[in-house]
Amino acid sequence: MGADHGSERLMTNGNPGIGTAAHVREIAKQAEVELAILLGVEQSLRLALQWMTRDRGNSHKLSTLRFAARSFERHLVRTRVLADVGGYMHLITDADPHLAGEVSVLREVRKELQANFERIILQLEYVSADDAVSLGQVCSEMERYLADLEKHGQKEMRLLQHSFAQDEGGSG
Questions:
Q1: Which terminus of the chain, N or C, has fewer Cβ atoms within 10 Å?
Q2: CA-CA distance, 78 to 76, in Å (whole number)?
Q3: Rounded Cα–Cα distance for residues 115 and 98 (Å)
Q4: Interhelix angle for 88-95 vs 132-167, to 10°?
Q5: What is the DSSP letter of 16?
Q6: pTM
Q7: Angle, vertex CA 35, rays to CA 34 and CA 39, nearest 5
Q8: Can you list the pairs that 149-158 forms with residues at least 24 positions away whose Cβ atoms lie under 8 Å?
Q9: Under 8 Å CB-to-CB from 152, ≥6 apart: which residues?
């Protein structure tokens, strides 16, 4: 019979090895690294959005925006998968099952944000570089989306911190 590692485990729904302190640290480190990558790509996208062009420069800006937006989308999907598939959102509900409703609400908001982002990406694909007004509108929508995504990320972070502060005996 092996040693009892129960003190190292969170609630794990019976999955051995999942929820150990080491596993939680690995998920946290991966989330930290992936978030840093996402923030770097987001900063590049914001830089492209702020690019002020003259004359025919919109074609270059549009090309860069499309590239940056696609890169951001790939990294965003990756972080979403990491959060939901065996990642930190599961750790929240495993550690604190009564927070499942809040996690569910955050997932629904994330789905709405994703649908909005996909709509903006589509607009970006079809806007003409010669239509400065429409391009400006798409850029404004992307900036609003990024602000909404940031607010959502802050809510997720607060829930994560609250969950683990309580798990460690803190007051939350």
A1: N
A2: 5
A3: 28
A4: 40
A5: T
A6: 0.80
A7: 120
A8: 149/113, 149/117, 152/106, 152/109, 152/110, 152/113, 155/106, 155/109, 156/83, 156/89, 156/106
A9: 106, 109, 110, 113
